[in-house]
UniProtKB/TrEMBL annotation:
CDD domains: ABC_PstB_phosphate_transporter. Residues 1-25 are annotated as: Disordered. GO terms for molecular function: ATP binding; ATP hydrolysis activity; phosphate transmembrane transporter activity. One of its GO terms (cellular component) is membrane. Keywords: ATP-binding, Nucleotide-binding, Phosphate transport, Transport. The keyword Transport applies. The keyword Nucleotide-binding applies. This is Phosphate ABC transporter ATP-binding protein (PhoT family). It comes from the Bacteria. It holds the Pfam family ABC_tran. PANTHER family: ABC TRANSPORTER I FAMILY MEMBER 17 (PTHR43423). Residues 28-271 form the ABC transporter domain. SMART domains: AAA.
Length: 276
Protein backbone atom coordinates (compact mmCIF):
# COMPACT_ATOMS: atom_id res chain seq x y z
CA UNK A 1 0.00 0.00 0.00
CA UNK A 2 1.14 3.53 -0.73
CA UNK A 3 1.88 5.31 2.54
CA UNK A 4 -0.15 8.42 3.28
CA UNK A 5 1.92 11.53 3.01
CA UNK A 6 2.25 13.91 5.90
CA UNK A 7 0.19 16.96 6.58
CA UNK A 8 2.38 20.06 6.11
CA UNK A 9 2.60 19.87 2.32
CA UNK A 10 -1.17 20.08 1.87
CA UNK A 11 -2.13 23.11 -0.09
CA UNK A 12 -5.72 24.11 0.48
CA UNK A 13 -5.26 27.69 -0.67
CA UNK A 14 -6.98 27.42 -4.04
CA UNK A 15 -10.04 25.72 -2.62
CA UNK A 16 -13.58 26.90 -2.47
CA UNK A 17 -14.56 28.12 1.00
CA UNK A 18 -15.69 25.50 3.51
CA UNK A 19 -19.12 24.21 2.70
CA UNK A 20 -20.60 24.70 6.12
CA UNK A 21 -23.68 26.18 4.43
CA UNK A 22 -23.52 24.17 1.24
CA UNK A 23 -26.85 24.45 -0.52
CA UNK A 24 -26.19 21.61 -2.96
CA UNK A 25 -29.02 19.10 -2.61
CA UNK A 26 -28.25 15.53 -1.52
CA UNK A 27 -27.53 13.22 -4.44
CA UNK A 28 -27.24 10.15 -2.28
CA UNK A 29 -28.08 9.44 1.31
CA UNK A 30 -26.44 6.40 2.85
CA UNK A 31 -28.39 5.17 5.85
CA UNK A 32 -26.93 2.73 8.34
CA UNK A 33 -25.19 0.66 5.67
CA UNK A 34 -23.79 -2.68 6.73
CA UNK A 35 -22.09 -5.02 4.33
CA UNK A 36 -20.95 -8.60 4.89
CA UNK A 37 -18.70 -10.89 2.87
CA UNK A 38 -20.09 -14.12 4.32
CA UNK A 39 -19.09 -14.03 8.00
CA UNK A 40 -16.93 -10.95 7.59
CA UNK A 41 -18.60 -7.69 8.56
CA UNK A 42 -16.85 -5.26 6.18
CA UNK A 43 -18.98 -2.09 6.56
CA UNK A 44 -20.42 -1.16 9.93
CA UNK A 45 -23.33 1.21 10.13
CA UNK A 46 -22.10 3.78 7.63
CA UNK A 47 -24.32 6.85 7.19
CA UNK A 48 -23.51 9.94 5.14
CA UNK A 49 -24.97 12.42 2.69
CA UNK A 50 -23.25 12.89 -0.65
CA UNK A 51 -24.12 16.21 -2.20
CA UNK A 52 -24.89 16.82 -5.84
CA UNK A 53 -22.07 18.12 -8.06
CA UNK A 54 -19.56 17.84 -5.31
CA UNK A 55 -16.48 15.65 -5.07
CA UNK A 56 -16.42 13.41 -2.01
CA UNK A 57 -13.14 11.62 -1.19
CA UNK A 58 -12.90 8.36 0.73
CA UNK A 59 -9.68 7.93 2.66
CA UNK A 60 -8.40 5.39 5.16
CA UNK A 61 -5.81 2.67 5.64
CA UNK A 62 -5.63 -0.35 3.38
CA UNK A 63 -8.43 -2.80 4.09
CA UNK A 64 -10.70 -0.31 5.90
CA UNK A 65 -13.50 -0.84 3.38
CA UNK A 66 -13.22 2.07 0.93
CA UNK A 67 -13.54 -0.06 -2.20
CA UNK A 68 -16.22 -2.21 -0.60
CA UNK A 69 -18.20 0.94 0.11
CA UNK A 70 -17.70 2.36 -3.39
CA UNK A 71 -18.71 -0.92 -5.01
CA UNK A 72 -22.05 -0.91 -3.19
CA UNK A 73 -22.99 2.15 -5.26
CA UNK A 74 -23.17 0.26 -8.50
CA UNK A 75 -24.10 -3.13 -7.10
CA UNK A 76 -20.78 -4.73 -7.90
CA UNK A 77 -21.13 -7.16 -5.01
CA UNK A 78 -24.30 -8.71 -6.34
CA UNK A 79 -22.48 -11.68 -7.80
CA UNK A 80 -20.09 -12.24 -4.87
CA UNK A 81 -21.14 -15.38 -3.02
CA UNK A 82 -22.28 -14.68 0.52
CA UNK A 83 -22.34 -10.90 0.00
CA UNK A 84 -25.09 -9.23 1.99
CA UNK A 85 -26.21 -5.61 2.19
CA UNK A 86 -28.28 -4.08 4.97
CA UNK A 87 -29.47 -0.50 5.22
CA UNK A 88 -30.12 1.89 2.39
CA UNK A 89 -28.36 3.90 -0.28
CA UNK A 90 -31.02 6.32 -1.46
CA UNK A 91 -30.46 7.98 -4.82
CA UNK A 92 -32.14 11.30 -5.53
CA UNK A 93 -34.07 13.01 -6.99
CA UNK A 94 -36.34 9.97 -7.26
CA UNK A 95 -35.44 8.60 -3.82
CA UNK A 96 -34.87 4.92 -4.66
CA UNK A 97 -32.85 2.51 -2.55
CA UNK A 98 -30.23 1.34 -5.05
CA UNK A 99 -29.20 -1.71 -3.00
CA UNK A 100 -32.75 -3.02 -2.88
CA UNK A 101 -32.64 -6.30 -4.83
CA UNK A 102 -35.86 -5.26 -6.59
CA UNK A 103 -34.00 -2.37 -8.23
CA UNK A 104 -32.38 -3.50 -11.47
CA UNK A 105 -28.55 -3.31 -11.17
CA UNK A 106 -28.24 -2.40 -14.86
CA UNK A 107 -30.41 0.66 -14.30
CA UNK A 108 -28.22 1.60 -11.33
CA UNK A 109 -25.05 1.22 -13.42
CA UNK A 110 -26.51 3.40 -16.15
CA UNK A 111 -26.95 6.17 -13.61
CA UNK A 112 -23.77 5.58 -11.62
CA UNK A 113 -20.63 4.89 -13.67
CA UNK A 114 -17.38 3.45 -12.35
CA UNK A 115 -13.70 3.79 -13.21
CA UNK A 116 -11.13 1.44 -11.71
CA UNK A 117 -7.62 1.69 -10.39
CA UNK A 118 -5.95 0.21 -13.45
CA UNK A 119 -7.07 1.51 -16.84
CA UNK A 120 -9.07 -1.34 -18.38
CA UNK A 121 -10.02 -0.45 -21.95
CA UNK A 122 -11.71 -3.17 -23.97
CA UNK A 123 -9.64 -4.78 -26.76
CA UNK A 124 -11.41 -2.59 -29.28
CA UNK A 125 -10.84 0.71 -31.03
CA UNK A 126 -10.92 4.01 -29.15
CA UNK A 127 -14.26 4.78 -30.80
CA UNK A 128 -15.81 1.42 -29.95
CA UNK A 129 -14.72 1.65 -26.32
CA UNK A 130 -16.73 4.83 -25.91
CA UNK A 131 -19.63 3.65 -28.11
CA UNK A 132 -19.92 0.36 -26.21
CA UNK A 133 -22.43 1.40 -23.55
CA UNK A 134 -24.46 3.33 -26.11
CA UNK A 135 -24.75 0.31 -28.38
CA UNK A 136 -25.86 -1.81 -25.39
CA UNK A 137 -28.58 0.75 -24.83
CA UNK A 138 -29.77 0.23 -28.40
CA UNK A 139 -28.27 3.35 -29.99
CA UNK A 140 -27.07 2.38 -33.45
CA UNK A 141 -27.50 5.42 -35.68
CA UNK A 142 -24.07 6.44 -36.84
CA UNK A 143 -24.67 10.15 -36.53
CA UNK A 144 -25.91 9.86 -32.95
CA UNK A 145 -23.03 7.55 -32.00
CA UNK A 146 -20.47 9.90 -33.59
CA UNK A 147 -21.91 12.84 -31.71
CA UNK A 148 -22.04 11.09 -28.34
CA UNK A 149 -18.56 9.58 -28.71
CA UNK A 150 -17.11 12.99 -29.54
CA UNK A 151 -18.94 14.64 -26.63
CA UNK A 152 -17.70 12.02 -24.12
CA UNK A 153 -14.13 12.24 -25.41
CA UNK A 154 -14.24 16.03 -25.14
CA UNK A 155 -15.61 15.81 -21.60
CA UNK A 156 -12.77 13.45 -20.72
CA UNK A 157 -10.28 15.95 -22.20
CA UNK A 158 -9.07 13.38 -24.70
CA UNK A 159 -10.66 14.43 -27.99
CA UNK A 160 -7.80 16.54 -29.32
CA UNK A 161 -5.32 13.76 -28.72
CA UNK A 162 -7.32 11.01 -30.40
CA UNK A 163 -9.60 12.60 -32.98
CA UNK A 164 -7.35 11.53 -35.86
CA UNK A 165 -7.02 7.94 -34.71
CA UNK A 166 -10.42 6.99 -33.40
CA UNK A 167 -10.32 3.62 -35.11
CA UNK A 168 -6.94 2.57 -33.76
CA UNK A 169 -6.69 0.16 -30.85
CA UNK A 170 -7.25 1.60 -27.38
CA UNK A 171 -4.10 -0.24 -26.31
CA UNK A 172 -2.01 2.15 -28.43
CA UNK A 173 -2.76 4.92 -25.92
CA UNK A 174 -0.57 5.79 -22.93
CA UNK A 175 -1.70 4.76 -19.43
CA UNK A 176 -3.02 8.23 -18.67
CA UNK A 177 -4.85 8.41 -22.00
CA UNK A 178 -6.29 4.93 -21.40
CA UNK A 179 -7.63 6.08 -18.03
CA UNK A 180 -9.22 9.16 -19.64
CA UNK A 181 -10.69 6.81 -22.25
CA UNK A 182 -12.22 4.73 -19.43
CA UNK A 183 -13.65 7.93 -18.00
CA UNK A 184 -15.06 8.82 -21.46
CA UNK A 185 -16.55 5.33 -21.68
CA UNK A 186 -18.25 5.87 -18.33
CA UNK A 187 -19.46 9.35 -19.34
CA UNK A 188 -20.87 8.32 -22.73
CA UNK A 189 -24.10 7.08 -21.21
CA UNK A 190 -24.47 10.34 -19.28
CA UNK A 191 -24.44 9.05 -15.70
CA UNK A 192 -25.47 11.28 -12.82
CA UNK A 193 -22.65 10.07 -10.63
CA UNK A 194 -19.13 8.75 -11.16
CA UNK A 195 -17.26 6.38 -8.85
CA UNK A 196 -13.48 6.54 -9.10
CA UNK A 197 -11.50 3.82 -7.32
CA UNK A 198 -7.93 5.11 -6.95
CA UNK A 199 -8.02 6.29 -10.56
CA UNK A 200 -4.46 7.63 -10.61
CA UNK A 201 -2.56 5.06 -8.59
CA UNK A 202 -1.17 3.43 -11.75
CA UNK A 203 -0.28 6.74 -13.41
CA UNK A 204 2.72 9.06 -13.51
CA UNK A 205 2.53 12.58 -12.01
CA UNK A 206 1.67 14.31 -15.30
CA UNK A 207 -1.14 11.90 -16.14
CA UNK A 208 -2.30 12.17 -12.51
CA UNK A 209 -2.47 15.95 -12.78
CA UNK A 210 -4.58 15.73 -15.92
CA UNK A 211 -7.03 13.32 -14.28
CA UNK A 212 -7.28 15.61 -11.24
CA UNK A 213 -7.96 18.59 -13.50
CA UNK A 214 -10.61 16.54 -15.24
CA UNK A 215 -12.28 15.63 -11.94
CA UNK A 216 -12.51 19.32 -11.13
CA UNK A 217 -14.11 20.02 -14.52
CA UNK A 218 -16.54 17.11 -14.30
CA UNK A 219 -17.72 18.35 -10.94
CA UNK A 220 -19.62 21.02 -12.88
CA UNK A 221 -21.96 18.39 -14.25
CA UNK A 222 -21.95 15.34 -12.00
CA UNK A 223 -21.45 13.99 -8.52
CA UNK A 224 -18.14 12.25 -7.88
CA UNK A 225 -17.08 9.76 -5.21
CA UNK A 226 -13.35 9.03 -5.27
CA UNK A 227 -11.21 6.58 -3.29
CA UNK A 228 -7.65 7.76 -2.84
CA UNK A 229 -4.58 6.91 -0.79
CA UNK A 230 -3.06 10.21 -1.68
CA UNK A 231 -3.81 12.85 0.94
CA UNK A 232 -2.75 15.70 -1.33
CA UNK A 233 -5.07 14.43 -3.99
CA UNK A 234 -8.01 14.30 -1.59
CA UNK A 235 -7.16 17.84 -0.47
CA UNK A 236 -6.82 19.11 -4.04
CA UNK A 237 -9.88 17.63 -5.66
CA UNK A 238 -12.54 17.03 -3.04
CA UNK A 239 -15.16 19.19 -1.37
CA UNK A 240 -15.89 16.60 1.30
CA UNK A 241 -13.76 13.89 2.84
CA UNK A 242 -14.81 10.72 4.62
CA UNK A 243 -12.25 8.94 6.78
CA UNK A 244 -12.89 5.23 7.31
CA UNK A 245 -11.29 2.81 9.74
CA UNK A 246 -12.01 -0.92 10.10
CA UNK A 247 -15.31 -0.68 8.24
CA UNK A 248 -16.58 2.34 10.15
CA UNK A 249 -16.98 5.90 9.05
CA UNK A 250 -14.93 7.72 11.67
CA UNK A 251 -15.32 11.27 10.42
CA UNK A 252 -16.95 13.05 7.53
CA UNK A 253 -17.07 16.73 6.65
CA UNK A 254 -15.80 19.51 4.40
CA UNK A 255 -12.31 18.59 3.21
CA UNK A 256 -10.77 21.72 4.60
CA UNK A 257 -12.06 20.93 8.07
CA UNK A 258 -11.01 17.29 7.97
CA UNK A 259 -7.47 18.24 6.98
CA UNK A 260 -7.00 21.25 9.21
CA UNK A 261 -9.23 20.66 12.23
CA UNK A 262 -10.13 16.96 12.46
CA UNK A 263 -12.36 16.24 15.42
CA UNK A 264 -11.23 12.66 15.91
CA UNK A 265 -7.78 11.64 16.99
CA UNK A 266 -7.83 8.64 14.63
CA UNK A 267 -8.40 11.00 11.68
CA UNK A 268 -5.56 13.25 12.75
CA UNK A 269 -3.21 10.29 13.23
CA UNK A 270 -4.01 9.02 9.77
CA UNK A 271 -3.67 12.28 7.88
CA UNK A 272 -0.46 13.14 9.65
CA UNK A 273 0.95 9.75 8.73
CA UNK A 274 1.08 8.39 12.28
CA UNK A 275 -0.67 5.24 11.22
CA UNK A 276 -1.86 3.74 8.01
N1 LIG B 1 -14.45 -10.70 -1.91
C1 LIG B 1 -14.11 -10.58 -0.62
N2 LIG B 1 -14.34 -11.58 0.25
C2 LIG B 1 -14.02 -11.48 1.56
N3 LIG B 1 -13.44 -10.39 2.12
C3 LIG B 1 -13.17 -9.37 1.29
C4 LIG B 1 -13.49 -9.40 -0.10
N4 LIG B 1 -13.10 -8.22 -0.64
C5 LIG B 1 -12.58 -7.49 0.36
N5 LIG B 1 -12.62 -8.17 1.52
C6 LIG B 1 -12.16 -7.70 2.83
O1 LIG B 1 -12.93 -6.55 3.19
C7 LIG B 1 -12.11 -5.59 3.84
C8 LIG B 1 -12.20 -4.26 3.11
O2 LIG B 1 -11.59 -4.40 1.83
P1 LIG B 1 -11.55 -3.20 0.79
O3 LIG B 1 -10.95 -3.72 -0.47
O4 LIG B 1 -12.89 -2.58 0.72
O5 LIG B 1 -10.56 -2.19 1.53
P2 LIG B 1 -9.89 -0.85 1.00
O6 LIG B 1 -10.02 0.14 2.08
O7 LIG B 1 -10.44 -0.48 -0.34
O8 LIG B 1 -8.38 -1.31 0.85
P3 LIG B 1 -7.22 -0.84 -0.17
O9 LIG B 1 -6.94 0.58 0.18
O10 LIG B 1 -6.09 -1.76 0.15
O11 LIG B 1 -7.74 -1.02 -1.56
C9 LIG B 1 -10.69 -6.18 3.89
O12 LIG B 1 -10.49 -6.76 5.15
C10 LIG B 1 -10.72 -7.22 2.80
O13 LIG B 1 -9.83 -8.28 3.09
Amino acid sequence: MEQPTTMPALDLSGRAPAQAQDDAPPKVEVRDLNFHYGEFHALRGVSMVIRERRVTALIGASGCGKSTFLRCFNRMHDLVEGARYEGEIRLFPDDINIIDRRVDPITVRMRIGMVFQKPNPFPKSIYENVAYGLRIRGISRRRVLDERVERALRQAALWDEVKDRLHRSAFDLSGGQQQRLCIARALATEPEMLLLDEPTSALDPIATASIEELVTELRERLTILIVTHNMQQAARVSDYTAFMHLGELVEFGPTEEIFTRPREKRTEDYITGRFG
